[in-house]
Amino acid sequence: MTTTSVARALDLEGIARIRADFPILNRVMRGGCQLAYLDSGATSQKPLAVLDAERAFLTTSNGAVHRGAHQLMEEATDAYEQGRADIAAFVGADGDELVFTKNATEAINLVAYALGDNRFERAVGPGDVIVITELEHHANLVPWQELARRTGATLQWYGVTDDGRIDLDSLQLDERVKIVAFTHHSNVTGALAPVDELVARAKAVGALTLLDACQSVPHQPIDFHALGVDFAAFSGHKMLGPTGIGALYGRRSLLNALPPFITGGSMIETVTMAETTFAPAPQRFEAGTPMTSQVVGLAAAARYLGAIGMPAVQAHEQTLVAAALAGLAEVPQVRIIGPLTTQRRASPVSFVLDGVHAHDVGQVLDDEGVAVRVGHHCAAPLHRRFGISATARASFAVYNTLDEVDRLVAGVRRAVEFFS
């Protein structure tokens, strides 16, 4: 892939060039069908540029970051910090506002833990309120339940409308609210959150905001500064990058005010037998040996997506979502869980089939080489809101095609025929 040839437009030729960067997409699955990978909402496939970047680092420059003074250490440190700068630029942040974690779940837990520490002047305590939404992935639900349990705060939430969006009329905020945490794109309904409105409501009562951006960073242009959130979490493996790497964005003043989450080496300023002082952010939150090669790989993924152009990525994926919604709507037995149009919604597309369990739908699709996720997608309360235990979920990425959407719809029709 070249920057100029693909960035102009994602036409068939451009998509073909992108797909050539993902050898796994050529795999023939059991039954003799070529893989149609429609599960990027769970984890994305990795382009050669990412694999090559990690391999090159490990075979030429592997060393301990921020330790010692030999050449390999210097090269490793430079690669790590350049990776931080590249990834931060990709999401509209400054380098010192980006903390590396092992995944987005850890990033959210970092904030939830720190907000319960009374060394933080805006710490959550008894009588305070934590606000989330009924749309949340468990990673943006359970940490807040635990914070409420530890501190004596109360957990409240915005409900969900029948078409799978945040119900802004379901909750009124007041000055007791200390944090409002919400997903940017639902990992079940695909609905896009009204970020501006939620941030404005939080600011009006003096509350902080945290954005779960796992499902948005890989699929649309993101600028955390412009969004105005205080914190945001995203993962590497969902944006064409390696596993074992995530990131927390935090406003500089807040990161420097928060106490550390995990302590040990690398995050200290001074240590005596009696006490320790801590390094400034982001190093304060990166105790121990970091995931250096994964940072290098994630930076390569950010550059890869940036070369394509995130507006082009978003437009292409919206075409896929529109085709999936239209195709599945023609199957009478299908019920879409989420908005029925592409207005303020994106991938994924989750659905149920009358009289057929989602796992059975997934098995039929798998027999056809079509990979989707089935289950509650770590969003059990949301599924209960819709009176169901599980859905089948197709989620798209820049490397998917309309032909693969057609195979999805054909597979669903086959499931209807088989189980009728």
UniProtKB/TrEMBL annotation:
Needed cofactors: pyridoxal 5'-phosphate
Domain Aminotransferase class V: from-to ranges: 37-408
An annotated Gene Ontology molecular function: cysteine desulfurase activity
Keywords in alphabetical order: Pyridoxal phosphate, Transferase
Catalytic EC class: transferase
Gene Ontology annotations of biological process type: cysteine metabolic process
Protein's name in the database: Cysteine desulfurase
